[in-house]
Design a protein that fits this description.
The structure is a single chain. The protein is mainly α and about 400 residues long. It is built from 15 helices and no strands. It has a single domain (about 5-180, about 190-375), classed as MFS general substrate transporter like domains (Growth Hormone, Chain: A, Up-down Bundle), CATH 1.20.1250.20. The chain has helices spanning about 5-35, 40-55, 55-65, 70-85, 95-110, 110-120, 125-155, 160-180, 195-200, 205-230, 240-265, 270-285, 290-320, 325-355, 355-375. The radius of gyration is 19 Å and the shape is globular. Residues about 380-388 have low confidence and may be disordered.
Length: about 400
């Protein structure tokens, strides 16, 4: 690490970013009571959030190439945090759907620039660890968002809890502006269509994206529905459900630095990602057993698998493009996987209504496996400064 203050500001921003990402799932049961909603409403809002996060990944990558990752990440954090703060004042459920889209949109401008900035402040050959650390903070913040905000909402109310996380997010945007050095943006920089075309048409990046799409399908379902499932179907309290739900984030937080360091040593991206993907599918099958112990184990397994696959995938993608386009390569990969969050949570909610939770969990494991298997169609490689 060669700039502790910058890294500290990025980590604090990542922590609150994660809280604003995941705390909605923790407080949804209270929102549902106030606004007369059920699992179908949760599916719609989660889909709206992931749509915003997915649609604006590539615009975020292009903006970062033009103005630099520091400004892009700060502006995105500000937008996401302001929308989260505004959610605390809604009067009907349709407003929440729009605001969660804006939260996702703002977050689309944060992740890839953050990955690039973190790697910039770590020594060469430790970039995988830096990405793992960045993701570990995300999952740790997510665990705090699910468990801590379940407790906070239960004690103070869901509106107050969302107002707190939104306000903290605005504060972290200010810290980024103050503590992260200005980007070395070239005055003569212009978009190179040849380089952009290489990224958009990369078969290797596309196959990595399919594997991560399958994993994000699993992750989106587990993190969005597990807490509400335990409350509504297994009949356990908000705080205990939040505690069990947070195990997914705990598992991810453990796996991120471990798999990041393993990737630094082996450079076997697709092999490591495939193993993690199969573990994620197994986690969904575990969730089909209707008891708290199975739910807890499913959360841990799915979380550990997700942390590993995203850390390795983003570390590999970052190395495949010229410096100005690292953010775009990461954004393309992230955008591909995030669309799973738009597609599969609404489908899962419909499956629950039609088939019940146990069969819905089992079916989800079956339809995510083909995407994970796509990783077998490619092989690991490292091509710094060029993408093919």
């Amino acid at each position: 690490m060669n700039n502790g203050r910058a890294v500290a500001s990025l980590i604090s921003g990542r922590l609150i970013y994660a809280i604003n990402w995941y705390n909605f799932a923790a407080v949804f049961a209270l929102i549902a009571r106030d606004l007369n909603q059920n699992v179908s409403g949760l599916g719609v809002v989660v889909g709206s959030f992931y749509l915003g996060a997915g649609l604006f990944q590539i615009p975020g990558g292009l903006l970062a190439a033009k103005i630099g990752p520091r400004k892009t990440a700060a502006y995105g954090t500000l937008l996401a945090s302001a929308a989260s703060l505004a959610t605390s004042a809604v009067t009907d459920f349709s407003q929440i759907t729009v605001l969660r889209f804006l939260v996702g949109m703002g977050m689309a401008f944060v992740f890839a620039p953050g990955v690039i900035l973190m790697a910039r402040y770590f020594r060469e050959q430790a970039e995988g660890f830096s990405v793992g650390l960045f993701n570990a903070v995300f999952y740790g913040g997510g665990a705090l968002g699910i468990f801590g905000w379940a407790v906070l909402a239960d004690a103070w109310g869901w509106r107050e809890s969302l107002a707190i996380s939104g306000g903290l997010g605005i504060l972290t945007a200010a810290l980024m502006i103050l503590l992260v050095p200005r980007d070395p943006v070239r005055e003569d920089f212009a978009m190179e269509l040849t380089e952009i075309r290489r990224i958009f048409t990369s078969k290797w990046l596309f196959l990595l994206g399919l594997g991560m799409f399958g994993m994000m399908s699993i992750w989106g379902i587990v993190t969005a529905f597990m807490v509400y499932y335990m409350e509504a179907s297994l009949k356990i309290g908000v705080v205990l459900a939040g505690s069990v739900g947070a195990l997914a984030l705990l598992g991810s937080g453990i796996s991120c630095p471990v798999l990041g360091a393993l990737y630094d040593r082996t450079r076997k991206a697709t092999e490591l990602m495939f193993i993690c993907g199969i573990a994620g599918v197994a986690g969904l099958e575990l969730a089909s057993q209707p008891n708290v112990a199975a739910a807890a184990l499913a959360n841990l397994v799915a979380g550990f698998a997700t942390g590993g696959i995203v850390t390795v995938g983003f570390s590999a993608a970052r190395e495949l493009a010229h410096a100005e386009y690292e953010t775009l390569a990461v954004s393309c990969l992230n955008g591909t996987q995030l669309f799973a969050g738009f597609i599969f949570p609404p489908l899962f909610s419909l499956s629950v209504i039609s088939l019940g939770y146990s069969r819905a969990w089992m079916l989800s494991g079956l339809y995510t496996f083909p995407f994970i298997a796509a990783l077998l169609l490619t092989k690991s490689k490292r091509v710094t400064g060029h993408i093919s």
